[in-house]
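Subject: Protein record for review, amino acid sequence with backbone structure tokens
Concerning: The relation between a protein's sequence and the shape of its backbone.
How to read it: Take the token row as a discrete description of the fold.
Enclosed: The protein record, placed directly beneath this head.
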Amino acid sequence: MNLEAIRKDTPGCQFKIHFNNAGASLPPLPVTEAIRNYILFESTTGGYEAADIKKTEVQEFYISVAKLINTEENNIAFTSSATNSFSLAISSIPFERGDTVLIANEDYISNQIAFLSLQERFGIKLIRAKSLSTGGVDLNDMEELINKHHPKLVSLTHVPTNTGLIQPVEIVGKMCNSKEILYLVDACQSAGQIPLDVKKIGCDFLTATMRKFLRGPRGAGFLYVSDRVLEKKLTPLFVDMRGAEWTGPDTYEVRMTSKRFEEWELPYALVVGSKEAINYALNIGVENINARNKVLCNLLKNKLHSIKLKALDIGQDQSSIITIEMPGKHPNEVLQYLRALNINTSTAHRSNAQIDFKSKKVDWALRISPHYFNTEDEIDSLIQSLEYLND
């Protein structure tokens, strides 16, 4: 990995020490240049005309995502975010009153709220599998719940936003496939930092955003849809003319590709920018990114321990998200103190993780999320700043 070249490609590194990659990472130059160039071309050509001329370049987005997660381009839909992908996916499932949805305690806040809303409005039953005391979902409990309730859907967040935990999505996938249960994986925080293979995971839906570890633009994401879902013609509740053909005054026919999950109006500049972000990650190699991030995170955790700051993350497998407790400090005080030093981090709060943070007995945590372009010197700067604040 040519770190010098990568940092040269990342203008933000000149101004900030960026440890908020789990929020929104710093995009490399090819991403911002692709977006700018497309908008400029569109402004002198016309929106419809530019889309026609750049059709091949736009289509390359789907090819790149397919390479990233080991699938085919017809299984990929462009969306505005991971949450948008999630909403489209669950709106395509024909839930009936009394249907069961099985999730984990650590699942992402917006996913939890969405299922609670479905429970309140349509009478589905939301069940959460137990968590292990050592971290992560209890696979034995999940298997028992699957066998007992045969849920309509199992949904699991691969890497929860409020902790560095990596959930065993492949094992859960095997459980679901053996019972032909629909399986959704939220890869919002794992895409771009952990290798993803939907064939190994065995999921029917996989949701992701571009702005985090993929280093793409905000307002962009993607949705993977399995062949099984496409063949069953599961369709979003509000499908439009991109997703279906109007065949008669009172009839329509859905597309047989994942395009049925898209809207006709696409932000084409963000599509080509997203393509560049994915290609940038692919050129470096997600396996290499994952290895580099592990080195950075292990170094950071050791240095945090040396200044007596407690990491809250548990679980056998850990990602590039580290949460720490700052006793006696106010979250905004810590955040603004670090920002004044040009160090970007973020905070997670009890309202984001009602179950997880209750079990950890904390109301908030400082979230530090290194990425491969960070340096050991930047870690030292963060540690020195936290040590001073903690004294």
Summary: The first strand starts at residue 17 and ends at 18. DSSP finds 15 helices and 14 strands in the chain. The mean pLDDT is 96. Residues 3-24+285-390 form a domain with the Aspartate Aminotransferase, domain 1 fold (CATH 3.90.1150.10).
